[in-house]
Amino acid sequence: MAINVGGLVSIIVFYLIILAVGIWAGWRHGNKNKKETGTESVMLAGRNMGVFVGIMTMTATWVDGGYIMGSAEVVFTSGVAWCQAPFGYAVALFLGGLFFAGPMRSAGYHTMLDPFQEKYGAKIGGILYLPALCGEILWSSAILASLGSTLSVILGLDNTIAVLTSASVAMLYTLFGGLYSVAYTDVVQLFCVAIGLVISNLYSDIILVSIEILNTYVDIQIIKILCVPFAWNNPAVDMENISPATWGGTIKTHEIGIYTENYLLLIMGGIPWQVYFQRVLAFRTPKQAQTMSYVAGLGSILLAVPPILLGVVAGATDWNLATNGTMNITAEENGKIILPLVLQYLTPPWVSYIGLGAVSAAAMSSADSSMLSSSSMFARNIYQAIFFPWASERHVVRVIWVAIVVVAALASLVALTVNSIYGLLYDSIQAIQCEICCISIIFYDDDSVLSADLVYVLLFPQLLLIIHWKKYCNSYGSIVSMITGFVFRILGGEPLLGLPVVLEYPFYDDELGQLFPFRTLCMIIALLSHVLVSLLAHCIFRNGYLSTKWDLLGCFDDFSFESSARQRSRTDEGKTIGDSSSCRMSNDSSEATTSASQFELISRSSTLEHLPVQMPQGEVNPAFSS
User: Fold this and answer.
1) What Gene Ontology biological process does one annotation of this record name (predicted)?
2) What is the distance, to the nearest Å, from the Cα of residue 541 to the centroid of all Cα atoms in its chain?
């Protein structure tokens, strides 16, 4: 296929504009705040994210290339009913704002993993970075793959060149300005997405689709007449022959369990993402973080409408007529690139270029975010917290830069090997749940759910409990939760990994496989095991059934301090030694502004000055005191 020179020039101009905006944003912030050069500035934009930029960057992060391309793909192949990702992610943003954004921002954390390491210690909390990294890599890969497919179809550009060029541009401006560059480029990119898709829809008979759907229930002939000119632009689209059953899709009885669980995977598995919490933690106040989550959820739903309608148009198109018999387009073979094909054959060239810019903008707005988020977690929660706790701010920033390059390279490598965009997008959520083994594959329409279910099964219960049940959580419960959830998930089998079904859950079918929502069951098992084991360990050590010398993970060392203090107070009448519990009680009644976790650390540290005991393993790492 010959290279489309006009389209190539337009995409080069677009990339140069995005790169210039990213560099300008980083330069502007550097001149304005010369003293803010640490990790908080790079990772969280100095916690000074404005309302307008915040809404744009949070919405643009979710509305990526995989989101747009995948939505059109699944509507074309299976119908609107099975296009679950946009609506699931929107609900995830609402619930994230309602239950998680406020507490995380109020605590002043830097990354999603901070509360885990604060509670469980740097090493055990750092284990959760592995599934999180898998999810971020898969998500970035899905984004780059969607962009590569679009550029290949419309421009005739080699897929490898398209993926590597796109990843390089996103990497460069992310390196230059951190979250500032990412946020400001997101503003430009989101406008490109909205304008590009709207214009593409107008020339792709989207209005006719909407009216045809409306006419299914109401006869509005006047509106239909007004839309006749749009029908002339695309003679290959015959909306008269498409029925609600065709564009809407069908859900069979035996698919109800899978369908329901897919939404649960997207909603609950869509919350534990560093790209989301990076923006939450960058806002000025907890209230602002919550509000922006709600608005972004609404925006993501609105921006899903154009690609969904484009998928409906694709289903109503006579592709033999549209391509003049040059291509035999089927859902099985061409579903992945259906959106580029719609732009290529159903719109004028200049409109296809604008649509191409929309897809490119959506892809890059999320690829840069994913690169920065995974690199931030590595630099802070692995490199600094575990290996070099006394590393300087400048040193950690340099580690972030190196990590961005590595993540971009890994994402590009995976992007060049994927088969289904929607599957990879859905799997990126499950990949987070893949725990230590980092099992991250694709599984939606046989290519899209495995990534999402690993976040859902393993990471979501952990995040829920560390935020809303932190007092009783401990490392024993966390480890058992990860192990049980992982084991029960693996026993359910996974054809894409070649894993046989060892445990047949209810309604198992030899041909259709697991029909029971067993991933949800695995998540519940992981959640309950965390609660029960944490309570059991708390009861055993707090009540003295087992000496704290057997507390191998150092979760209850403070209890030994309390016991020692009480014993000394009984033998020495004139001497009073305040234990950590009394310190916390006095703190509650005082007017001190120190947070509960900081005060507990101070009180325990003061006791350590009098007792030659090694610091407990579960103690807060000094890296979190900044």
Assistant:
1) acetylcholine biosynthetic process
2) 37
